[in-house]
């Protein structure tokens, strides 16, 4: 390779137009490049906000991986993808890095359609080893030597999927390399026996240097000799710590390696790349938030950040106008738990995101962070319910998708009273389609035995949490959106609602809007706009997607010309249940017009949530448009409806 000629005063990063430029640099210059890359990432995130600590922690690893491997020919897969900002900067997306997470801008995670350097899209965790293994096996079948590298965190490796993949990894031979990026943090501090096991490995071994590594690594030996030597080496290692779990699973363990030390990282990666046998797992130790200029870089609060002042570190946060749904949920559960010692709460690695960090402060013995293990979380909750406890499985809508069989088979079929507190229901904005809570109404309300509620505001949420606590004979779910509530007065205490009963919020005579969940405000705004056009409008809050308030549906159908359902969910959800009921009852056979407003049948790109709802036609203007269209109006051009500042 020819060394790139660079003027001393030119920032090195400015000379890197492609990974080939990077690979032409002498190794001695990579330290400088990494430092500049870190500075660039800090500058970019200060302007956009976004995932922060994870990316800062893998700057050296990112440089080293692109330097050593022939990306994008070799497949580099970042688990979750929230740490891929330095990767994006180095792979032709530097000019757009300050658009990340904004409408029309770069995706928050890796995305196949965004770059050839993102061979697998992500957002949800613990998929990288399976995907890399699939690619490795495909290349083996095709007779290609192409390698697949999965970079997975110590948090993500708590999920069952990672073990399912490692259990099959042997068939990939040296086409699969797993980098375990161990920073001893998930979003919150890492939990569980696996995390403790990794800590034990670290405390019983010193960082691997190239000298140790060369002594240990048997890349030049023919396989039988290598196998013998490997056995000998493993038993020598066993005198200290035993062979690792990874070795037992068939991945040759290399490590621990200091992930910020390029002098160690580069030669070890080169040797692993050229090893004749595999698969290999390299245990790389990094610090989350490494090189962050401000205090407490490793803390959970730096996992994701709002925009901040790059000089002072001061975060740009507007003063909250109302409590978040998350906090109202948590505070309500804390109140309820004071009078009911059977209430317990479960999170799958999202204690602060779900508010269960608050619950844990009050009830440490009744709070369970099971790690990134949604499937286990649900069946664990089922077990607790079997013994008379009242588990609140508190899981984001999007992450509960992973545990659907557990919801069906372990909870619904057995009619167990697990309470699902489903945060981030509906569109979540900047995290985009992988994180949108679009499907839970559809996948839960289709299950026999389930009660499914959706909160229209934070006061309703308080009542619904109390309702869930009171439902002892079957599963229930309450869904609520990300972010601040509407600012309504909060009742002192939640009072259980009558199951399957909605409420009329505003009376009219021509149009009926039947809303489920937090679009109620938009429905009311739409009603005002329709009223101004002489269209008297009723607005009802269904509260329950299941059981449906059939009396309410009948009344609305009988007294109006048009019935429109509105929900923050996909096709097959609340609207479908209403239609189904109406069809069965013959309510669609007369002159009544019926329409269902729901999320579009496509994955919406990330943007702010208000813009995404507008795009879906689920804002007030969209509701007005739908009504007028149903009534046969042709000119739908000016549907402007006053928007709240937060939209
Ligand atoms: C299935 C799933 N559950 C939860 C999350 C939320 N989540 C995103 S990153 C993260 C922590 C990941 O920790 P780790 O893999 O150690 O990466 P680090 O941030 O420490 O680099 C979690 C829980 C997710 N993305 N996917
Ligand atoms: C990467 C990931 O899955 C989480 O970090 C997620 O972005 C958190 O979302 P909230 O900000 O809604 O908690
Ligand atoms: Mg981690």
- The CATH topology of the largest domain is what? Rossmann fold
Largest sheet: 7 strands, mixed
Q: Strand content of the residues, in percent?
A: 5-15%
Q: Give the total of domains.
A: 3
Instruction: Compute the CA-based radius of gyration.
Output: 27 Å
Strand order of the largest sheet: 9-8-10-11-13-12-17
Cofactors, ions and other ligands in the entry: thiamine diphosphate, 1-deoxy-D-xylulose-5-phosphate, magnesium ion
Identify the overall geometry: globular
* Helical content (DSSP H or I, runs of 4+): 25-40%
Distance N to C terminus? 53 Å
CATH superfamily of the largest domain: Thiamin diphosphate (ThDP)-binding fold, Pyr/PP domains
Question: How many runs of DSSP E, i.e. beta strands?
Answer: 19
CATH class of the largest domain: Alpha Beta
CATH architecture identity of the largest domain:
3-Layer(aba) Sandwich
Mean pLDDT: 91
EC number: 2.2.1.7
Catalytic activity: D-glyceraldehyde 3-phosphate + pyruvate + H(+) = 1-deoxy-D-xylulose 5-phosphate + CO2
Domain Transketolase-like pyrimidine-binding: 323-488
Subunit structure: Homodimer.
